[in-house]
Amino acid sequence: MISLAGRDILHSWGKFIFTGVGLGLLIGVTLVMAGVYRGMVEDAKVLLDNSGADLWVVQKDTLGPYAESSSVYDDLWRGIAVLPGVARAANVTYLTMPVRKGDRDVRAMVTGIVAGGPGSPGWPPYLVAGRQITRGHYEAVADLATGFALGDRIQIRRQHYTVVGLTRRMVSSSGDPMVFIPLKGAQEAQFLKDNDAILMQRRRTAQNPTFAQPVPGLLDAVVATQTANNFVNAILVQVQDGHLPQDVAEPIRRWKRLQVYDRAQMEQILVGKLIATSARQIGMFLAILALVSAAVVAFIIYTLTMDKIREIAVLKLIGTRNRTIAALILQQAIALGVIGFVVGKITATFAAPMFPKYVLLMPFDSLTGFFAVLVICVLASLIAIRIALRVDPAEAIGG
Fold it and tell me: Within 10 Å of residue 164's Cβ, how many Cβ atoms?
């Protein structure tokens, strides 16, 4: 039996290969989009892993330091550190902002960490170059994605810091690289007002009718309170071995009147709430790309089938069964899909590192994508098969 699919591919291999490449680019984009979603989920998990925390203590009725604003007093950690089951407790601040180096701004998550050394909650767990922060001011550890190098001087608000260490894959849930600085400097960057704002606040406080007859020292106390930076975004807690995070969290909620999240709850917030909208958008793009891919395959298989109507009529005239003719067209569609998937997989693999956000290509997604491509090709070939089966054998001897 003549292989109509193989013969036609060899006869019009240029059209077939170029169509496969075009389909492969669509498949490559689809794989990258799936990888972007996987990368967003991985970034969220990496953020939680790098924090070194089992519990996140935040302002009551908030979703934590990563999903919304949270402010708690920086002396509350002492009362938490002595609770049963608590191994370590440390303050931390998170602020996503531009970090300036010379004339260039880099968007980064500035993280304020307390003194205590590696292993303390909030500290970067490892470095690829340099050393950890050893001074209480003016030193920083930066992720490689910032583009900073050892010895660089960077500016955060009004203060300058020297990069003394470099780390890798320390990112926020949105993929921004992290810069670690001492807690006091981070508190000033986030909570301390600038000089003009302080001066304006003093004038507004002095003109307030409540202070028409001010009590000696009261005005200064109010201004000092309004301009103080004794807040942090969260308290990171490490639980002792043999204790459950839920058991340690309950006394904090009850007696400290604070919100406490464990690892599973914080992951649900990051993945289920912050990434949910992006996931739906990516899902819509994947659906659109699948429809476009199906349309491309259907069009090219239809075109190739119409070009060989006479050959199909000859096959029917000599008694070839409809099942054989349908299998030949189906083979051609599957071959097109395999070529497209190979091209798409290669394209996605080489293009993924070029994206500004982390793209995670998982084998399971590739395997699922391969079978999805085969299904799309089978469905797209049904129109061509239907046309081929309706061909009149008399066309083989017609004019």
Answer: 21
